[in-house]
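tool_call predict_complex ligand=AHM
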Amino acid sequence: MLRQFEEGTTLDRFIAESEHLHPDASGRFSALLHQVSLASRLVSARVNRAGLAGMLGATGDVNVQGEFVQKLDEYANEAFKRALEHAGCVGAIASEEDEGPYRVPERFYSGRYIFCMDPLDGSSNIDVNATIGTIFCVFRRKSEEGSPAQMSDILRPGTDIVAAGYVVYGSGTMMVLSSGRGVHGFTLDPYVGEFFLSHPDIRLDGEGRTYSCNEGYAGTWPDGLRAWVDARKGEGMGWKSRYIGSLVADFHRNLLKGGIFLYPGSKKRPEGKLRLLYEAFPLAYLVEQAGGAASDGQRRILDLTPSELHARTPLYIGEKALVEEIVEVLSTRE
Ligand code: AHM
Ligand code: MG
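tool_result ok
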């Protein structure tokens, strides 16, 4: 770990020091991270006063996934797009909330990065004040910057990701980030309005004994998977079950405490529920950076390429050994 990345370092300083490590850096990537930080702080402030500001509850619109849109979803979607569009660092933004990619308006420079996000993951938890979050990953575009970004800049294998992160809006707000040099967590000091490095170099140590899944669907799982989960139940087994129903919150807890998150497909819905581009990809990038693994049950998540913006995937993500066990269990089909 570099000396300048000690606990207490501000995110601003972290970004500047990281840029210094890349002598050819243009500053565009740093600008992107600054704008992500700004948007997260805006959303965090809004989440904290959601009840007071009358932002709870659905707007009544149905989004492209056929779900009810909550007001905070709209706010978060706008906040990230507006923070990023004018900064000259992105050419397009793919969002869970938008049917197609959002290309930066012509009056702004169409920059070299592609930003993919779930602006407010876990939105069914808004009404009950449980943890929600933003998930994102960044690609470097293949087409010329300065020209409109293409679909082929966005629908890429996960191995092309250059950075990923998430923000959890929980009892506190935390941003967890990686640009290929480990995973670092920053906690927002709401009084100062700045993120401070609180969790440098997060690693999964392989000791975690938590599984996170919606057991209400166990009847739809492959038998082998059900047996794997059942085998972890019982007194003295040392296993815990934890499930909030916010991917970002469940993943965050498992990243810090160890464990595995499972969202299988079912016979009716073999592709599962979670989206590849802006949910599975970013978390898979982070988990690998932390020494863990992510699979769709057969293939490494980062080796996949989305067939369309909102493509879904089953997801098994967490401690490497646990993910490998699950892949093994799933390979012996009943
Ligand atoms: P969302 O992006 O609309 O909030 O939906 C995704 C969420 C994930 O955060 C979470 O892991 C999952 O849906 C929970 O689904 P379920 O309620 O089926 O367990
Ligand atoms: Mg989501």
